[in-house]
Structure formats: C-alpha cells, structure tokens
Amino acid sequence: MKIARRLDALHEIYAVYDNFIKGLTMACKRGCATCCTQNVTMTTLEGYSIFQHLIASGKTGLLKAVHHTVKSKRYQPALTTNELAALCLNGEDPPEEKNDYSSIACPFLCNNECLIYEERPLGCRCFFSAEKCETAACAVVEPFFVTVNTVFLQFVEHIDAGGLFGNMSDVLLFLEPEITQTCHETYSIVGNRVGLSHNRPIPALLAPPEHQMRLEPVLRELSNIPL
Predict the structure, then answer these.
(1) Which of 59, 50, 40 is nearest to 7 (CA)?
(2) DSSP-assigned letter for residue 118
(3) Residue 111 to residues 21, 36, 58: CA-CA distances in angstroms?
(4) pLDDT digits (tens, 9 = 90+) for 142-164
(5) 3-state DSSP call for residue 164?
(6) What is the dihedral angle through the alpha carbons of 95, 98, 104, 108, rounded to the nearest 10 degrees?
(7) Can you tell me the distance from the alpha carbon of 16 to that of 5, in angstroms, rounded to the nearest whole number?
C-alpha cells in the first residue's frame, strides 16, 4: 500500500481520537509535561509521519536529541498491542516487561512544550489524567478510557501491519537513514532493529464485555476509515 494512503488513515484515526477526548474532564493543560518522557512508544508509520513534519518544518536538527536518548536506559516494550491481544485470545500469559528504565524528558520537549505536537504519536495523545500526575503520583484514568486507548492503539498498529513497533527513539533512528535520503511512494520495512517488534493485524479487540456497548459509537467511526 502506498505510504500516502496509510498516512491518511493514520491521521483519520488521530482525528477520531482527538474528537473523542474533547469532552473529557482532564487535569492536563498546556505546559504540563510530567508524562513527557523518553519512554513513548509508537509504530514505524507514526515515525514516517513525524519525519514528514520535521522535514517540512525544517526541524530535522531535533534528531540530535533523539540520538542522545539512546545512550540511556529507556522503555522497550516486549510485544506489540496486537501481540498482547493474540496472547489473551489464546489464554496465554504475556512476558514480563523490564522496568529498569529512566524517566528522562522526551527529546522533543522544550520549556515543557512539545516541539512536534501536531504530529505526536497516539501514545502521547492517549496519555491523560483526571488528576494532576504530581499530586496523584501517577495518571488517574477511568477503566473504560483505558479500553478506548488500547483499541485505538490496536487500530494504529493494524494499519501498519508489516511495520515495526517500539520506543520512539528506536523507531526514528531505524527510519532515519532511509527517509532522510529519499521520499518513497510505497511503504515497506526491510530489516529490524534490536528493541523493535513487528506489527500485526488485529486478532481481537481488547475490550471487556462491560465496555463493549459503550464502545460501539467509536468503533462505528473507526469502521468508516478505509484500512
């Protein structure tokens, strides 16, 4: 599939999500950056979107900070969201995640503001809290919204099946040599990188029975997006 079509679908998913959270009460405000660390995860398709933004806005110099983050410990997920769904479907337990990572600030954060806000990945968009993280010491999110976030992550991974998933810095540095040399009309990921996992289609939605009826309006909107 051409990269332009995949990117269109990605941005449509973003739009549906952004519209969904508009009416929610949350403590997150401009300048609040407690959760903006180097531990963000995303797909390679989202990496392409960020690269497009950096190139169009003349901000490719920001990649220097990304190179710096890989010198420190960071969260590198053991599996993708849809891999987790497949394990749950088969009644298998997921592997234990390593937690020996630091909370260094995101390389795209400056003066508590995001330098790529318009193109931030879904992992950033869906991280919000009903209370200030400094007060609660963690994000406070209603279980239903955790389900919604998970489902959206599944759809983003679904449209990037064949791509890779992992820490934002690892994804961007994997893509950097190819994207900065040429612009491709078609989309293909060749090779792999330590710390990245292969994306896969949705095997089943990670939505418990008690959330399914409430989730239906969102699913109808997502189903209208050509995937």
Answers:
(1) 50
(2) G
(3) 25, 12, 20
(4) 899 999 999 999 999 999 998 99
(5) strand
(6) -30
(7) 17
Type of residue found at 160:
D
- Report the alpha-carbon distance of residue 163 to residue 84 in Å, rounded: 16
Closest by alpha carbon to 130, among 145, 117, 147? 145
- Three-class secondary structure assignment of the chain: CEHHHHHHHHHHHHHHHHHHHCCCCCCCCCCCCCCCECCCEEEHHHHHHHHHHHHHCCCHHHHHHHHHHCCCCCCCCCCCHHHHHHHHHCCCCCCCCCCCCCCCECCCEECCEECCHHHCCHHHHCCCCCCCHHHHCCCCCCHHHHHHHHHHHHHHHHHCCCCEEEEHHHHHHHHHHHHCCCCCCECCCCCCCCCCEECCCCCCCCCCHHHHHHHHHHHHHHHCCCC
pLDDT, tens only, 159-187: 999 899 999 999 999 998 866 444 444 55
Side-chain half-sphere exposure of 205, counting CA atoms within 13 A: 17
3-state helix, strand, coil in the chain (%, to 5): 45, 5, 45
Q: Which two tokens stand for residue 178?
A: 């190819």
CA distance 67 to 71: 8
Residue 63 tokens, joined: 């990649």
Rounded distance, CA 37 to CA 133, Å?
Answer: 13
